[in-house]
């Protein structure tokens, strides 16, 4: 019995990873030399990037347009891998020119910075998606790491096993976690050191910063995760405090915000949870931030607080002593 196999080192890449309901991943989207097993790694990360987005669309959490980010994020990575493997193939050719290049390359490999750069290319750890953020951390794949306070350490990958996003909150009093409370499928974990980071289910860092970057964090949450407001259980005496209320507190000061919130056909007013009050009270004046707060959609962000029927005249935000309101369970 004879067996004939065909081997080729040709490199090919599709123009788009998505056309309507057809989505490509792995070797269906890109082929190249198998040197270094880079194709296997590339295909696995394709699947991780696509899987959670597809699930979010199927659940109805996010619009179909979320899937367009699959091509824009993963195709540039494949282009870089194809270029890298073509260069590796060129170095293996048995001709004098390639031999001279191999000798030069061997010398370059003695430099640590060159090794680090090539390691990042071949392992994919140098990947950075263009998410429109200036901070270098944003768009990078985080990899596994210890998370949680020193007394209760766990690993990031273990916490991500359920396919949820992770907010590592390094703010002193959990301010970042309070701002993320109005979104589904985001788990908040304390972190010993900053910056705080919002990590998507595929391990991509979607936001990194401190509590002063309220709009940056909420924008990232709105972009990648679903608001809890449409699916929150409206129990008797429950008030949904809109994102606009919180950002108005940022704009004019937490102590000055008083607004009506409608629930069950009745207008009531109440106090924000203490953690949110503390967060917005410590933020900079709007002259130091972007001035588009008024146009933000209140329905896309919410804090659920448990209202007492007797408390119909307290201001939404207040720094005065008084009975605070406790957040009710809104995760579904």
From TrEMBL:
Coiled coil: none annotated. Residues 299-332 are annotated as: Disordered. Residues 1-84 form the FAD-binding domain. Its cofactor is FAD. One of its GO terms (molecular function) is FAD binding. SUPFAM superfamilies: FAD/NAD(P)-binding domain. Keywords: FAD, Flavoprotein. It comes from the Bacteria. The keyword Transmembrane helix does not apply. This is FAD-binding domain-containing protein.
């Amino acid at each position: 019995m004879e067996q004939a196999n065909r081997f080729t080192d040709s490199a090919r890449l599709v123009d788009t990873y998505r056309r309507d309901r057809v989505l490509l991943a792995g070797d269906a989207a890109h082929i190249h030399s198998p040197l270094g097993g880079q194709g296997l790694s590339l295909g696995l990360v394709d699947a991780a990037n696509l899987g959670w987005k597809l699930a979010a669309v199927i659940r109805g959490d996010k619009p179909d347009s979320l899937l367009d980010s699959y091509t824009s994020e993963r195709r540039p990575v494949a282009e870089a891998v194809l270029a890298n493997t073509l260069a590796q193939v060129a170095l293996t050719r048995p001709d004098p020119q390639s031999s001279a290049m191999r000798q030069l390359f061997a010398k370059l490999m003695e430099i640590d910075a060159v090794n680090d750069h090539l390691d990042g290319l071949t392992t994919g750890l140098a990947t950075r998606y263009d998410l429109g953020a200036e901070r270098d951390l944003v768009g990078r794949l985080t990899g596994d790491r210890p998370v949680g306070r020193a007394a209760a350490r766990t690993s990031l990958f273990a916490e991500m096993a359920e396919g949820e996003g992770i907010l590592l909150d390094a703010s002193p009093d959990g301010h970042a976690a309070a701002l993320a409370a109005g979104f589904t499928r985001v788990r908040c974990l304390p972190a010993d050191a900053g910056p705080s980071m919002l990590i998507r289910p595929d391990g991509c860092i979607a936001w990194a910063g401190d509590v002063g970057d309220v709009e940056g964090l909420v924008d990232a949450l709105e972009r990648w995760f679903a608001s809890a407001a449409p699916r929150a259980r409206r129990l008797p005496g429950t008030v949904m405090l809109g994102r606009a209320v919180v950002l108005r507190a940022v704009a004019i000061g937490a102590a000055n915000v008083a607004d009506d919130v409608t629930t069950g056909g009745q207008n009531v007013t109440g106090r924000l949870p203490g953690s949110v009050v503390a967060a917005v009270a410590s933020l900079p004046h709007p002259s130091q931030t972007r001035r588009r707060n008024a146009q933000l959609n209140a329905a896309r962000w919410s804090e659920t607080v448990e209202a007492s029927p007797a408390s119909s005249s307290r201001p939404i935000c207040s720094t005065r002593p008084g009975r605070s309101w406790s957040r009710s369970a809104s995760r579904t």
